Amino acid sequence: MLIKNLFPRLDTQAAKELDEFGRVLRKAAPLKGKHFEVLHKNVRALSDSLTSDREGLRKDYMTDARFLGAYLYYFLPWNLYRLSRLFTGIEPYVNNGGVIIDLGSGPLTVPLALWISMPKMRERTLTFICVDRASKVMSEGRRLFDTLTGGTSKWRIVTVKGSLGMQLREKADLVVAANTLNELNWTGRDSEQMQGKVAHSLAKYLKKDGRLLLVEPGLRQAGRNLAVMRAELMDLGLMPLAPCPHDGYCPMHGQGTDARWCHFNFGVEGAPRWLTDLTHRARLTKSGLSLSFVYLTTAEVSYVGSVRAVSEVFKIPQGRGQYACSSRGLTLLEYPQRGPALFPGQSLPPEWPEQSRTDLKSGAVILPVTAKLTKGK
Ligand SMILES: C[S@@+](CC[C@H](N)C(=O)[O-])C[C@H]1O[C@@H](n2cnc3c(N)ncnc32)[C@H](O)[C@@H]1O
């Protein structure tokens, strides 16, 4: 299986459900008058803490009423939007009777996003094992899930207060950790050992032919960590399904000062108006979103040699360029001055030139894109 378009726009139904999630929030997690009035300020404060002041962020920030409200009304819906676009692209289906483990589940963001973006899964009997060190936020999530689904869902949701790495009785068809790995402390002398340990713990949760999805913010440090995790997990026998179109060395690993890191930017088309309004009131601009992720499997994967566009398009002397990834390593797509180009995350089957050329600035192998790009590729 190779994934062509990683972040398709939400369809009308999913966009509508995300819009209605505002009503779900007000019903299942109403904010007291005072908290509602200062919501935008709390969003701003939590955003500063999560991005630039992580050191000062208390471990139990999810249990602080101000931050919990800000998380539920702002970070949760934006994560639902981000994950819904990713899920629409990678389609992480789980069969009837399957088990999904969600690590660092918070307000059950992953089950909520799967419900919103993958309606075909709704009729399946699934078990979700949601693990978080803060139980209160998972209880809020359960109320949100019951309100969203009308309380009649076939999905069984088990919440477990505990830490990533804890023993779980069941193994999973799909393990997800979304916006969680960046909460672990990766610094210090034992960091390499710790990366290996985390990879082992994650792999242990998987059934035979199980899949593992790690999603992180599109920041350099997160991209770096994911590249390391990818390598560690591949040493344990897993193979990447996406975004990597190959199982070789990651050429966008983010190490060193100039190294590019693998992350994807995309727009906010179809995001709910109430959410963009709140974003504006919190003086946070969101003209685009960004994430890094890696999706791996313990099954065999056959790669067809495609090339995945990663960066946005930029000007180069010959026309326009775009960094991409292929089995030949870092790749520079070279487009003419005008005409269509790939969106970050889209892939194409390459027509490699007979004579290979290398970009002097980046060391990337150059792939001229002359073929007509058709929609949907
Ligand atoms: C940023 S939130 C992400 C929540 C949710 N996955 C999402 O994408 O919206 C990170 C969550 O991970 C939890 N967490 C952090 N470190 C953890 C650990 N070592 N074990 C379990 N949960 C952890 C936090 O309590 C928090 O709920």
Overview of the structural elements:
- With 377 residues, the chain is α/β, with parallel strands linked by helices.
- The protein is 33% helix and 21% strand.
- The longest helix has 26 residues, at 65-90.
- Bound molecules: S-adenosylmethionine.
- S-adenosylmethionine (SAM) binds next to helix 4 and strand 2.
Total number of domains: 2
Poorly predicted regions are: none
The beta-strand count equals: 14
And the CATH topology of the largest domain? Rossmann fold
Rounded to the nearest angstrom, the distance between the terminal CA atoms is 15 Å
The mean pLDDT is: 93
CATH class of the largest domain: Alpha Beta
Describe the global form.
globular
Q: Name the CATH superfamily assignment of the largest domain.
A: Vaccinia Virus protein VP39
CATH-defined architecture of the largest domain: 3-Layer(aba) Sandwich
H/I helix tally: 9
Largest sheet: 8 strands, mixed
Structural class label: alpha/beta
Rg measurement, Å: 21 Å
Beta percentage is 15-25%
Q: List ligands, each type once.
A: S-adenosylmethionine
Pick out its properties.
binds S-adenosylmethionine; 14 strands; Rossmann fold; alpha/beta; 377 residues; single chain; globular
